[in-house]
């Protein structure tokens, strides 16, 4: 076993060096969604409500498929630490295969989404507008999943700055394309919600072209796309075994948030619009925790590749403390400044502005409440994925979100009549249970198991 004795400040600097570009990249990705929300909010509340539901539908499918891309990250990090470039290349290629296969399977659900949205209780207008959005935006799942695989590959090699810059270019592209196609500026047709969908597809393609060009030009020795058509069933099985639980774990969590969007839709267009705004704001701050979780995955995978358990434990503690500090700062922001934050997403003369603000302020207070829990669960997942422990976390997530969180949302929101506040309180309960259970899994089960497998008292220096 290679033993590392980096101090906690040194771990903190390493996490920031690796993590800040990843956090920036995630914030850039959210900026794309925020731009859609803001510009459609300016265009009309009905379009905003429809995009909230349709965007959640797309995001659920995307994150399930992204499980295979996520699987590439710890595998590449571990192979890179071992100096195994052949396995590194094989894992990335098979991640691309599985991502493309999932996109093919998911596409019909978006092309014929209107009956699904109606079945899920949405109004005819929301279902019609949402299906219009998905019939176009759905094609973006192909470049989006391929892009995600390349991002995981590059991030695992600690080339996180390019991930940030590519996403930043995408955010600018999306803003310009939205401005053109939603409102009909610069000679483009006024397309409304369909224009937001076109902008999303254009953005995904631009980002994909950029990241592929970088990988081929800067890392030609890996030859990632050479003989891409050749099957590698052994590595395909490895990526699949690690990736499908990650995809289903993501489905459990994001499915819970999508279900709450559907429940808010039952309450009406205005509560749904308020939900969409509050969720976008919560998503922005969540990206910091997600970036830290990515760092946890990369550094844990690297530590496992070097058989360095003390490094893993100290790094884990460092990332957890950073996540807690961010959660505390977010609570202050959401509780002290809710009205200015929500007001960004609406025109000053929006007829429903006062009602959306009154609902949104309460929902943002609930979002502040679940920041701590949300950060804990995603960082714990990142650590567990780094050591390639994905199946039990999948079970924990499914139970926490669907057996506990969603029933609580329904009971609090509709049985007890607390409406939107009750729906969001169910989110808090589900995330709290997941965060506690996943942290216990990492510290009480996974780390001791790694220590026993190492056959040493490797944890004692930490």
Give a structural overview.
The protein has 15 helices and no strands. It is 84% helix and 0% strand. The longest helix is centred in the N-terminal third of the chain and has 38 residues, at 45-82. The chain has one domain (8-453). The chain is mostly helical and 462 residues long. Mean pLDDT is 86; it is low at 456-462.
Labels describing this entry:
mainly alpha; 15 helices; 462 residues
Count of discrete domains? 1
- Portion in strands: under 5%
User: What's the gyration radius in Å?
Assistant: 22 Å
Distance between the termini: 15 Å
How many E-type strands?
A: 0
The H/E string reads HHHHHHHHHHHHHHH
Structural class: mainly alpha
Give the helix tally.
15
What integer is the average pLDDT? 86
Proportion in helices: over 70%
Outline the biggest β-sheet. none
Poorly predicted runs are 456-462
Overall shape:
globular
Short characterization:
This protein has helices at residues 8-43, 45-82, 85-111, 114-119, 124-137, 141-156, 160-183, 193-218, 233-267, 269-306, 309-336, 338-343, 353-386, 391-415, 419-454.
SSE blueprint and pairings:
Blueprint: H1 8-43, H2 45-82, H3 85-111, H4 114-119, H5 124-137, H6 141-156, H7 160-183, H8 193-218, H9 233-267, H10 269-306, H11 309-336, H12 338-343, H13 353-386, H14 391-415, H15 419-454
Helix pairs in contact: 1-2, 1-7, 1-10, 1-11, 2-3, 2-5, 2-6, 2-9, 2-10, 3-6, 3-9, 5-8, 6-8, 7-8, 9-10, 9-14, 9-15, 10-11, 10-13, 11-13, 13-15, 14-15
């Amino acid at each position: 076993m290679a033993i590392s004795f980096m101090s906690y400040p040194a771990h903190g600097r390493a996490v920031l060096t690796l993590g800040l570009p990843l956090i920036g990249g995630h914030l850039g990705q959210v900026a794309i969604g925020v731009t859609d929300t803001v510009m459609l909010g300016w265009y009309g509340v009905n379009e905003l409500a429809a995009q909230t539901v349709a965007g959640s539908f797309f995001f659920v499918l995307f994150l399930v498929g992204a499980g295979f891309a996520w699987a590439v990250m710890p595998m590449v990090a571990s192979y890179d630490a071992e100096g195994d470039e052949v396995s590194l290349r094989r894992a990335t290629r098979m991640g691309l295969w599985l991502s493309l296969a999932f996109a093919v399977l998911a596409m019909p659900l978006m092309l014929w989404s209107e009956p699904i949205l109606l079945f899920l209780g949405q109004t005819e207008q929301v279902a019609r507008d949402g299906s219009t959005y998905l019939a176009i935006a759905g094609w973006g799942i192909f470049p989006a999943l391929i892009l995600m695989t390349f991002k995981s590959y590059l991030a695992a090699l600690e080339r996180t700055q390019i991930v940030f810059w590519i996403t930043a270019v995408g955010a600018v592209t999306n803003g310009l394309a939205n401005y053109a196609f939603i409102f009909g500026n610069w000679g483009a047709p006024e397309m409304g919600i369909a224009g937001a969908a076109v902008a999303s597809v254009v953005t995904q393609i631009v980002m994909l072209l950029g990241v592929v060009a970088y990988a081929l030009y800067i890392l030609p020795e890996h030859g990632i796309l050479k003989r891409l058509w050749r099957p590698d069933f052994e590595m395909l099985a490895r990526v699949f075994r690690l990736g499908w639980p990650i995809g289903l774990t993501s489905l459990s969590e994001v499915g819970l948030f999508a279900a709450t969007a559907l429940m808010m839709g039952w309450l009406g267009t205005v509560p749904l619009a308020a939900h969409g705004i509050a969720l976008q704001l919560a998503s922005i701050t969540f990206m910091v925790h997600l970036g830290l979780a990515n760092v946890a995955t990369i550094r844990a995978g690297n530590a496992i590749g070097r058989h360095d358990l003390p490094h893993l434990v100290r790094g884990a503690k460092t990332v957890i403390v950073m996540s807690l500090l961010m959660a505390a700062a977010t609570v202050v922001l959401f509780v002290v400044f809710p009205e200015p934050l929500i007001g960004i997403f609406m025109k000053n003369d929006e007829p429903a502005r006062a009602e959306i603000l009154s609902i949104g302020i309460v929902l943002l207070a609930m979002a502040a409440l679940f920041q701590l829990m949300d950060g804990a669960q995603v960082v714990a997942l990142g650590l567990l994925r780094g050591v390639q422990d994905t199946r039990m976390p999948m079970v924990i997530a499914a139970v926490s979100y669907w057996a506990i969180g969603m029933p609580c949302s329904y009971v609090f929101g509709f049985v007890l009549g607390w409406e939107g506040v009750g729906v969001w309180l169910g989110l808090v309960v589900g995330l709290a249970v997941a965060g506690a259970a996943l942290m216990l899994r990492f510290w009480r089960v996974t780390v001791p198991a790694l220590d026993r497998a190492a056959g040493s008292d490797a944890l004692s220096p930490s």
